[in-house]
Each structure stands twice: as structure tokens, then as C-alpha cells.
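>> received
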Amino acid sequence: MHFRLAEEIINLSESKEWDFAKLEWSFEFAYYADELQKCLCGHYPIKNICVIKNQKNSFVTEVGNCCINKFLGIEDGNKIFSSIKKLKENIAASMSAEVIEYIYRKKGISDFDYKFYKSIYRRRIMSTKQCEIKKRINQQFLNFTSYETNSHFNKINLVLKWAETNTSFNTDFILSIKKTCRQKGRLTEKQLESLNKIIRDFKIK
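>> returned
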């Protein structure tokens, strides 16, 4: 499996030497797939998926969390998946400090939510209202790291990338639904239909 992963990564990299090719990649995103997925190395099934990006050519691909740790030496997904598991078992539990920073950096939570979470991070006793806000933020994190959300973000980013070289295209709608997706964890059916129509009509690939 390692040889297949190396081959796939090298094919997407600028360098054709594994030791250098793997250094071109950095962690972008992590999500938990409810539907079973297949890793770039060929391993099936996997559910803990990491999205990585090549810093030299901007290619993006997905690999399982085990492969990203073992062969690429990127450990960013570990704490994210640990927090996903913990919150799925108990929505009132706490995300790790690293995960709070991650989701805020990715604009998955607002400034208010970020500051609030940090302020109650080590508290054992909270008011009912504080507990409810914390659970809401935790659910927002779970939504943000879902397969559905990642799928929607991929389509949004595909259109925005295409728009960089098609400057006559007005991106206001795409930017507005990107904001919605960050806030709510998914697009509405109507928004998704509109997004898919844009991709079809303009033949965006």
C-alpha cells in the first residue's frame, strides 16, 4: 500500500522523488465520512479522511488519517478525529485547544464562539445557558467535519478557483453560500441545486 500511495502522491507532485515530493504537501482539512471511502493507497474501508494540498502546484487530494501520519508525517488530523469521536459520544464534552484553533482558523466558528469557548474551556461548573452555547458550538464543529459539508465546500471552492481565470463571473452568490456552509455545516437543497447548475452550465471541472 505504501508503494501505491507514494506513486499517487508523486504523480500529483512537482518532484518525482518521494522524499522531496511528500514535503510539498500540507494538511488542509479533515472530515469524518459516514459513507465508507477508499484511501489513495487503495485501503478500504476508511472513514477518517484528511484533505491535503500541494503547496507548489495547488493540487488537492484525500488520504486516510493512518497514511497521512505514517507515510507523510502529518499528524494534524489526530486531535480532530479524537474530538469528533469524543463529541459524538457526549456532545457536552470539550474539544481540544488545538481543535478550537483549527476550526476558528478555518472560519468554522464566529469570533464570539471562539472567545466564548476559550473563556469556559476549563470550567467544570457552568450555567444552563453556557452549557447550551457550548453544545451548539460542538455541534457546529461536528457539522463542519462531516462528509456532506466537505462535499459542498469542494464544489464551492471549485467554482471560486475557476472564477479566478474567468473574471467576468460574479462570485457574490458563491461567497454568500460559502458563508452559509461555514455557519450551518451544509447548504440548503435550493442552494446546492443552484451551485450544481452553475457547475453544469459553465462546464466547470
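>> The longest strand covers residues 25-37.
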